[in-house]
Amino acid sequence: EFLYIELRRTTMAFEEITKPSVSDMKETPNLIDYQSTREDFDWYRDGFSGLDWLPDGGLNNAYEAVDRHVNNGKGKQKALIWIGKNGDEETYTYSQFKEESDKFGQVMKNLGMQRADRVFIFMDRIPELYFAAMGILKAGGVIAPLFSAFGPDPVRDRMEDAGASFLVTTPELKSKIDTMLPDIKTLQKVIVIDKSDSANIKTDEKTLLYKDLMKNVDATNFILEPTTQYDFSIMHYTSGSTGKPKGVLHRHQAVVQQWLTGKWALDLKEGDIYFCTADPGWVTGTSYGMMAPWTNCVTQIIYEGGFSAASWYEIIQKYGVTVWYTAPTAIRLLMRAGEAVVQRYDLSSLRFIGSVGEPLNPEAVVWGNKNYKMPIHDNWWQTETGAIMCANYATTNIRPGSMGKPFPGVTMGILDDQYNELGAGESGILAVRPGWPSQMFAYWQQDEMYNSRFKKGWYITGDQASIDEDGYFWFQGRADDVINTAGHLVGPFEVESALIEHKAVAEAGVIGKPDPIAMEVVKAFVTLNPDYEATDQLRRELIGFARDKLSAGVAPREIDFIDVMPKTRSGKIMRRLLKARELGLPEGDTSTLEDDG
Fold it and tell me: In the prediction, which pLDDT does 9 show?
């Protein structure tokens, strides 16, 4: 069973893209010699010592991202250029960023937030999101960003599971989840950011306005919470094959690897103009939309709008973007937009282009090399790893379709079913030796699940891959049923649970169906309750029902009605069988299939 990327890689031949010598590059890369750096690497000398740390020896990632630059005389440098979806623009220096985040940190302390309280952020990409996130971290809280397209069910599930103490949101998004907020018994306050000052927000003891809180706060004597490297900082939810999404907890220590991978894997330099297209609701939007760029003292472009080839190219041209980090789905959409669009813009400011979230197909690497005059550098990591683990670097040759080589200080391997290491050319389980700085600390209140990810001294990623004779890793697919759609991991159980809440649905089975743009799309198979008929109208109704509960990106794009759901004798839906039948693949062992006759 192969995904689209693997089929394309194995059926087409692509030449290795040889990098120019360092002397011929626009600028000397931060990582000049990958192999010698890897051989001589030390996390404490090369990583931990590169940050400023707190006066008492503690560590706070918001301090490292914002305050230390101000303390080091760089406060006048631009930290953030925000471009609104309606064309509005706002610019903030590091000094202004520090002031705004200090104020919000004091707001949270005044509201009674305690160290390690979970604060959910449910909003679009506006400057106040970043001020709030950094302020919460400075005050010792744990930020839990949510994707703004989520429906009420995913928001409730995550906030209930985490025991959310606070929510920061906007009027539009609050109205979407208003009916479920009373279900969150731990919720103390809801802070509403009304950027346009146009909504008529009803305030009470629980619902407060950001502008009022910020206007009335005195942060002149704000004291940053003396967090340690082991204190919790960020919680992201990630999906699995069974059960609700699980909360992945990271510690402030993760910033060590986020800073260094930003420097070496993305080649970020002080003063760069950096454009990351990821939403903070996903881990890329925090690790590389907050921590990595700002710890490297760059100017980051924050674009509130969605995908648009012309808009993105115009941003690169207008602001002189030097480093661009995006996703394979977006790159495939840029390819679809065509070469003529590229040629209308001056993209010569670009020095480095990175990609993450799903495998980047070889054609995209070659297309980028032709149209952007440089290859797109794919890299691999997960919510659980917290930072880049494997990458194509500025000075290493690229084998199109490969996710590159392990980051210095990271040991990766390919294992068999008994967790023994395999050699070059053999496919198996992708695994990592534990101990990297940004390694997750826990799945929130799921110790058994967390412990199950570690076998024989390895962290088991859940991905399948291979390694070639020169040390390049090649992604092949997921080892479980998790669906990767446009870089977002979707747990089939969550979608199935939403569908069976509809009165017409008896059972639901969900799979990922290969797609040339999104890599996979969500497809559902449902059996109906008596007295309901399989019609196109019902199909549309179910898709709309799921979108209202989840989001358009998570809900099924296709639904098929079937008479009998394939299940094991113990009653477990055989998604593998549904996928094999959908794709015309061998069904494999069906000895455990329930006898329906």
Answer: 46
